[in-house]
Amino acid sequence: MLAQLVTKRLPNSRTRAIWPLGLFAAVQVADAVLTFSGVQRFGVSAEANPLLSFYMATWGVGVTLVGAKSIAIALAILLSLRSQDLILAVLTLIYVVGAICPWAWLSTI
Prior knowledge:
- The protein is an all-alpha fold.
- Helices cover 78% and strands 0% of the residues.
- It has a domain at 39-109.
- α2 packs antiparallel against α4, α2 (18-42) runs parallel beside α5 and α3 (50-59) crosses α4.
- It is elongated and about 45 Å long.
């Protein structure tokens, strides 16, 4: 299964299909770091996702973020195995615009 991810190529391209998955995972890690920093600075109410806010207040920020990001990356692996690389790329872009940029902007305040 892992060998399939590493050796498979994107359709009509010489680019390895592992790159969209790696970029998605990197964005997830960046989001976790920025979220952790933002919640430490502004409190749990700064998290826009009410489900994550609830779990952060219940289980703690670190546990919640590790769990949420692990699930996201596991589901991204499934998308990659099913050759849904365009969906993975779009989700990565959505995360950058919807999560990374707002946290980065808040960190400048």
